[in-house]
Each structure stands twice: as C-alpha cells, then as structure tokens.
Amino acid sequence: MKYEIVTLPEYRAVGLKWQGTFDEIVPGLKKVIQQMGERAGELEEKVNPLVQLGLSYHVIENGFIHYAVYEVSKDQEIPGGMVEIKIPEMTYVKTSHHKGEDVSETYSDLHRWLFQSDYNALRENDMIYYDPYMPIKHEHYPVDSDPEDPHFDIYIPIVKNHNTGR
C-alpha cells in the first residue's frame, strides 16, 4: 500500500448525520449514505460534486458519529434535515482502498503503518474517543463508487510523535 502525508486546508461540508453503534450500521448508516447521494442535487455550491465525504468520529462507545457530506462553498445554505460541519486544516496520512480489496485488510495495513511511523492519530484534547488507534476517519468516495465493492481514499488526521526520538 502507498501512504503519503498531506495537509488539507480547512473546509465546510453539508449533508446528513448518522449516529449509532456498530450493530446499527446495516441498514442505518448505509441508508443515510444512500439518501445523501439522492439529495446531493440540493447542494448547489459543492466544491467537488464528484466526491462524497464520509467523516467518522468514534466518540460513542461501541459506535460512532458519521457525516455523509459534500464539501461546499461558504455561500451554500443548509437544506432542511441536513447539518453543517467545519473541518479545520489538518495533516493526514492518505491511502487508497481499491475495488476488489478487503476493507478490513486496508485498515489493518494502515494501522500497522501508523504504529510503525513517526506519527500518532490526532486526538482532539476536549474529546473522548472509543477507538484508540484511528479515532477520526475521513473517507472520500467517488460518486461512481460501487457500494457493494467500493473504492475510496482514506484520510486519517495525524500529529508528529515527539516521543520516538527518530
């Protein structure tokens, strides 16, 4: 797998929010992601209309909060039933999950890389996270991605590990 360190500027995103346990992913989360795809036309100020974002925050025991959103300009109004989330500038490790691969293996490889690197997953000071390895996961899905066999880019917010001595 290929990994690169990238810094993305702050951005604004609008879309649908889902919150639940891992047991509720099917059908709950999948339905929200599908609904966001169906409602994408309501967002006239999409920055990149070809990429739907999946922003996950593991702040719930045995679950997480997920935002199925699109990056939008400052002029975008928030349609009914949607939410806004602002993402600050962050540094990420970026990798890609390819069609035909096992998603759990992609994340296992990424976890292994992170453990062996000079970086730690970002943990915001005022938050309690229930995933000790990758508490924040941002996934960028091309709109033509097959939900049954997806391809997408993974962005994990990171900070330099100052304890490695490397």
List the helices and strands and how they pair.
Elements: E1 4-8, E2 11-21, H1 25-39, E3 51-60, E4 63-72, E5 83-87, E6 90-97, H2 103-116, E7 119-121, E8 136-142, E9 152-160
The helix count comes to: 2
Report the helical percentage: 10-25%
The run of helices and strands is EEHEEEEHEEE
Largest sheet: 9 strands, antiparallel
Shape from CA axes? globular
Distance between the termini: 23 Å
Class inferred from helices and paired strands: alpha+beta
Calculate the mean pLDDT score and round it: 94
Q: What does this entry look like structurally?
A:
The chain has 166 residues and is an alpha+beta fold. Helices cover 17% and strands 41% of the residues. Strands 1, 2, 3, 4, 5, 6, 7, 8 and 9 form a nine-stranded antiparallel beta sheet that branches. Strand 3 (51-60) and strand 4 form a beta hairpin. It is globular, with a radius of gyration of 16 Å. 25% of the residues are buried.
Top keywords for this entry?
166 residues; alpha+beta; 9-stranded antiparallel β-sheet; 2 helices; 9 strands; globular
Outline of this structure?
With 166 residues, the chain is α+β, with helices and mostly antiparallel strands. The protein is built from two helices and nine strands.
